[in-house]
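Researcher: Here's a chain I'd like modeled. Treat it as a single chain, no partners, no ligands.
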Amino acid sequence: MRIEARVYPHPWSLALFVSELALRSARAYYVAKVDGEVVGYAGLMLTGDEAHVTNIAVAPDWQRHHIATRLLLTLAHTALEREATGLTLEVRVGNLGAQALYRQFGMSPVGIRRNYYAETNEDALLMTVSSIETPSYARRLAEIEAALPGSTIVEPAARW
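Model: Modeled as a single isolated chain. Structure tokens:
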């Protein structure tokens, strides 16, 4: 909740997080830790063969330390384990850093959601990648993972 309040102008409530965590068959949430400190988190919603990233957040002091990359790798692997074939998300049109990260994962813009972020009336860019179950996508994930420095631990949020 501390990270949520620092990175989003309209943070999710504790009740919303608790309700999301309770939907174990259709959701997956993870926390990233450095030396035991939670520095980020991410969530995934699974519907049929589609996986949708619900959120990725990293504490401001830990941004640009590959935490979001590790979290997104974990979400992609979870999507594959749950037999998803595609991965989607919305990102603020002005968040070019996040868009660059998502492009590394093969995501491409497929549309705009007008005024998606109600608190700022900012549009969201809808990004997606399909065929994540292919050997070429597995190679992409392996290359991203091999390039990561450090020792961030990502674990299921339910353990935390």
